[in-house]
Amino acid sequence: MTDLLQLLLAGVSVGAVYALVAMGFTVIFAVSEIINLTQGEFAALAGLIAISATAAGLPMPLALLIAIVTVVATALLIRLVIAPVKRMTTLLSIILTLGLSTALKAAMLLVWGPEGRGLDPLPGPNYVAWGVSVPSQYLWIIGVTAVVSVAVAWFYERTLTGKALRACAEQPTAARLVGISVGGATLLSFGIAGFLGAVAGVLASPVYFSAWDSGLALGLKGFVAATLGGLTSIRGAIAGGLVLGVLESLVAGYIDSGFRDAVAFVVLIVVLVARPDGIFRPHSVARV
């Protein structure tokens, strides 16, 4: 029983990171139907920037702020780079963002080298409950993800700006007629996605390390988690990330750790065959 609880805790922790990345995919796709394959690189870049900032002697809060702001600016720049494309299709967005993802990887490799590294853990004591070791970093990951998830859901469902973004997603022509800028909404969605990716990166770095290529696996798993919510549901993306993280942890613990990374792709195949609209997206809900 203790082993099961330990695996579940680890799964929820990594699943929370996947959920943040998945929400980044969702907030962009829901507005513009762009699949942004640089989402995983946002997390890797944030972790590496925060590590360099703390190594330079900056206090942890300032280092994290610099990392998040830099990644948000990078996300906005990516949107501006692809904005001139007039007829953006989902396939074309995949090709364009894949190229930009490769460019970001190359830049990170040149700046930070090939070695992976980890950010210093965020402050806090470790606990032991019912024989289960509870590292403070797990609590930070789960707690911050919960706060950010609630804030993002509230923003899209309760604020005027969030409702405008939903309007662009559901009725772009009508949104333009009432004066809502679809281009501005897409730019804002990229900024939010950059923020979510950066938070995922700085939270995960002390446990899972950051490297020039670490965003590849994280981005793919975040995408799988987002597909569980149909790529349009914030709540579905959160649920998908948690389920994927727990499944990975259980497979690694009870079967073989070598199969851990295969779980996401098996889940993706099952979802695409059985329910392409997403498992955690009820048919009756509106796109968010």
Description:
The protein has 288 residues and is mostly helical. It has one domain (2-274): ABC transporter involved in vitamin B12 uptake, BtuC, CATH 1.10.3470. The chain is built from eleven helices and two strands; from the N terminus they run H-H-H-H-E-E-H-H-H-H-H-H-H. It has helices at residues 2-32, 39-55, 60-82, 90-112, 136-158, 160-170, 172-177, 182-208, 214-228, 234-254, 260-274, and strands spanning 127-129, 132-134. It has a two-stranded antiparallel sheet. The termini are far apart. The model is unreliable at 284-288 (pLDDT under 50).
Topology:
Blueprint: H1 2-32, H2 39-55, H3 60-82, H4 90-112, E1 127-129, E2 132-134, H5 136-158, H6 160-170, H7 172-177, H8 182-208, H9 214-228, H10 234-254, H11 260-274
Antiparallel strand pairs: 1-2
Helix pairs in contact: 1-5, 1-8, 1-9, 1-10, 2-3, 2-4, 2-8, 2-9, 3-8, 5-6, 5-8, 9-10, 9-11, 10-11
The CATH C-level name is Mainly Alpha
> What is the chain-wise order of helices and strands?
HHHHEEHHHHHHH
Unreliable stretches (pLDDT < 50, length at least 5) are 284-288
- Structural shape: globular
The number of distinct helices, counting runs of at least 4 residues, comes to 11
- Oligomeric state of this protein: single chain
How large is the share of residues in beta strands? Answer: under 5%
The strand count comes to 2
Mean pLDDT: 87
Any idea what the radius of gyration is? 18 Å
Strand order of the largest sheet: 1-2
Percentage of residues in helical conformation = over 70%
Decide which structural class fits the backbone.
mainly alpha
The structural domain count equals 1
Describe the biggest sheet? 2 strands, antiparallel
